Structures are given as C-alpha cells and as structure tokens.
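Fold sample X.
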Amino acid sequence: MTSRKKSSQIQYRHGVSRRTFLAAGLATAVACFSPYKAFASVLMTFPPEKALAFYNTHTGETLKAVYWDQGTYVPQALAEINHILRDHRTGEVMEIEPALLDLLCALHQKLGSTAPFSIISGYRSPETNSHLNSMSKGVVKNSMHLLGKAIDIRLPGHELKTLQRASVDLQRGGVGYYPSSDFVHVDVGRVRYW
C-alpha cells in the first residue's frame, strides 16, 4: 500500500534545468548570426507548464502537480499522478497515458478552472473491472480504465452537463455521461459519446 498521508499537497516547481541552460546558450550563439534569428527565437520558446489537481473520493488524498515543464513531462509528477489514480480497491498502480492528462488539462483550460478533479475511478485492475462488470451494465469488459487511458470525474464548481459538453467539444476521445451516478467518463480512445 502506501505511506502517503491523506490530503497530502504536492507541487513540483523546477528552476532552470541543464537542458534549458544549454538551449538558451545555443539560442544566444545562433542569434549572433542574423539569418538564424527566427531559429533562435524558436529555441527560446518553451511550452507553458501544465499542472493538474486531484481529489481521490475514495481515499481522501489530494495532489497538485506540475506534470509538464520546460517542454517535457516530469517523471516524478507522473509517478505521483499514477499513484493517486491507482485502483483504490487493490492498491495496484498503472502508468497513466500522458494524453489523458493533457485532455484533463485542456478541460481545465476550456472551463477556466483550476479546481481539483474529483476522481471517481482512474485505473482499474482486471479483478476490479471484472467485479464491477458483473454488477453493472455500464462497465465493459475491455474498459479503457484497464489501460490507464480513462478516468471518471466530477469538477467542483461546474455542473455535470457542462463538464460533459466541454469534454465532447474537445473531440479527444470517448465521453460518457452518467448523471444518475454523478460523473463524466473521459478517455483517449476513439471519439465517441454515450
């Protein structure tokens, strides 16, 4: 299991990395040669940080992590996200597909929110998925949850229907709307809706 305390709050911030320092040095050197000024400006531009916040409704854990920084995914933050999205029934951890995190980040941006996503279900082990499948028609045998490519969520401050519509608008994968269970399913499989 884990020794992590409930309601732990983790945020990763990095100073200038070796890669950034070297890229800036190269950009400065290239900038000295006028035909290459455009190339130098591209080298100096890095994508913004991408951060996510989560609240696990089953364990009470919270996490806020910068998972993308200076043009690359942050391994330590990804490991923390994998942990909070683990199968809470078995404790099994699976590597979560980074595209799913990018989808969640895009949802935050679309809705103008930084609120933590409430996790209903992240990764599911085969045992958990089989058990849930035997109890509900809504759980499929070949669920994207088994692959770390799906999550069932709520977003405080936003109606479920608003979250569902924003997810559909992104056109990044599957979107399931479950108002009676009070969550929206999103995944990074083929684009489809139910």
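Fold sample Y, listed below.
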Amino acid sequence: MKVKGYALYPIGIVRSEIREPMPPERFKNRTSIIAIDESYREALEGITKGKKVLVLFIFHRSHGFSVKVHPKGEKGRPLKGLFSTCSPSRPNPVGATVVEVIEKRGCLLTVKGLDAIDETPVIDIKPVHIDEQEYERGR
C-alpha cells in the first residue's frame, strides 16, 4: 500500500508543571495551559469555560515503536497489539485527550485532565459532541 505523507504544524504548546511522562490517570485532576499561536486567536471563538474539547498533540519525546507492547509498560502484563493500548510509542506519535476548559484568556486555554507534559506541541483542538443533536447543530 502506498500512502501519501502529510506534514503537521503545531497550533500551540502545553505549559505544565509536569515535565516527565507519567501514567495518564495521574493527570486526571491536574490543570495545564495550552498557549495557542496568536494567528489562531479567532479559531478559539466558541470555546468557553466548562466545555469539553478534544486536544490532539504530538508525543514529542517518543521515538520508535513496537507493534506489540505491555499495557502501561508493565512487563508483568501480557503483550497486546499497539493499537489496542494508549502507548505513546506509535507509528505516528499523536495523542488525543478529552479535557474540560477551565478558563480562556486570549490565546491561553486553561484545561483540566490533559495528559501531556510541558512543551508538548498541540496540533488541533476539536469540540466534543455529547449527543447526535448537538453534533448536528455544531456542524
């Protein structure tokens, strides 16, 4: 199979007190800031406090991957197919997390639950639609 490659460009960067990777569940109640590039200021229109958004980011410290991994890196657990896990080591090191918007100030989004470390490049933000009606209204 021959597939065309694509270039991705960050729209912003994560600012967090967390500087080293840790299990995703430990990020659940933590807040971090997504500093969005000024050129995307108007793209943030409609994102408000309390909204849920999907943040797509690059696992910038991840290099290489295996098609079988131990879930959560725990060697005592049986190997599973990479795509059935949340391992940051992937063919395309893209992470995705649903977060709650705590505050929006200019191009700074304070969010809760983002499992990304300081200086992580953010490549996109998308709305989270709770039900089909809301999804249709948002299109």
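Sample Y note: The CA atoms of residues 66 and 82 lie 7 Å apart.
Also: The beta strands are 12-15, 31-36, 52-58, 68-69, 80-81, 94-105, 108-112, 121-127.
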